[in-house]
Design goal:
Carbon-nitrogen hydrolase family protein, Nitrilase/N-carbamoyl-D-aminoacid amidohydrolase, 269 residues, C-N_Hydrolase, hydrolase activity, Nit1/2_C-N_Hydrolase, 26% helix, C-N_Hydrolase_sf
Length: 269
């Protein structure tokens, strides 16, 4: 079995405040026995504009955000999936929205750069276009955590099932982790529906740490960080506000679902 936790935040435009909150939630989850902890998308900054990411962008494996999470992983002896943070590209006008993973020794183990960039306009003044500052990633990434195969996705990636099908090769993932900052409107309509669908069709656990609440910059995110099992059942969830959403992955449950309905073995395309 593997004890996991999704850490829900309501991040502000102040990196220091967000890092302090993240460290407090990491400590709380570790004290509860979590072995793998995941932070939400943009846990380190929910700025006033998209371009605020450029000012705090770090080089890979260098900078206060990454140093803080590496130290926390080592201090508590846990795996940390660091939601997302902006990492520099060769062009200072662009960054990658990157999910980093640290092992219990504080060493980096994986990096996934968000492939699908969110764009949305509801016609009533709520408008987003990540492509104005983000450079898209181009490769699926999975990482081994204590014998469990963990696939990584980020927020808008959730709407593209082909990414998660790709992550099921050459071996199926046991867990999908999707840090997110879903808007309140799209989250209310689709968040749980899509997460449970990804769990069911890939017959694996899904852990989704989210931003959840009204942020100081005026944005409202949906929250509802959750853990779903391979049958699509929601095992734990928190609607809004900071908190730890914890649960246990059980190998027996995973094997049971895949044996009763061997859909992964029936794939043809």
């Amino acid at each position: 079995m593997l004890n996991v936790a999704a850490l829900q935040m309501v991040s502000a435009p102040d990196v220091a405040i967000n890092l302090a909150t993240a460290c407090r939630l990491i400590a709380e989850a570790a004290d509860q026995g979590a072995r793998l902890l995941a932070l939400p998308e943009y846990f380190c900054l929910m700025g006033q504009s998209d371009r605020d990411k450029l000012a705090i962008a770090e080089a890979e494996d260098s900078g206060p955000i990454q140093d803080t999470l590496a130290a926390a992983a080592q201090r508590h002896g846990v795996w940390i999936i660091g939601g997302t943070l902006p990492l520099r590209t060769e062009d200072p006008q662009w960054v990658r929205n990157s999910c980093r993973v640290w092992g219990p020794d504080g060493r980096p183990r994986a990096r996934y750069d968000k492939i699908h960039l969110f764009a949305y306009d509801n016609g009533r003044g709520e408008r987003y276009d990540e492509g104005r500052v983000l450079q898209a990633g181009d490769a699926p990434v999975a990482v081994e955590v204590d014998g469990w195969r963990v696939g990584l996705g980020i927020c808008y990636d959730l709407r593209f099932p082909e990414l998660f099908r790709a992550l099921m090769q050459p071996a199926p993932c046991d867990l999908l982790v999707l840090p997110a900052a879903f808007t309140h409107g799209t989250g209310r309509a689709h968040w749980e529906l899509l997460l449970r669908a990804r769990a069911v069709e890939n017959q694996c656990y899904v852990l989704a740490p989210a931003q959840g609440g009204l942020h100081p910059n005026g944005r409202r995110t949906w929250g509802h960080s959750l853990l779903a099992d391979p049958w699509g059942e929601v095992l734990a969830v928190q609607a809004e506000g900071e908190g730890v959403v914890a649960g246990t992955l059980r190998r027996q449950r995973l094997d049971e679902v895949r044996a009763q309905l061997p859909a992964l073995a029936h794939r043809r395309i």
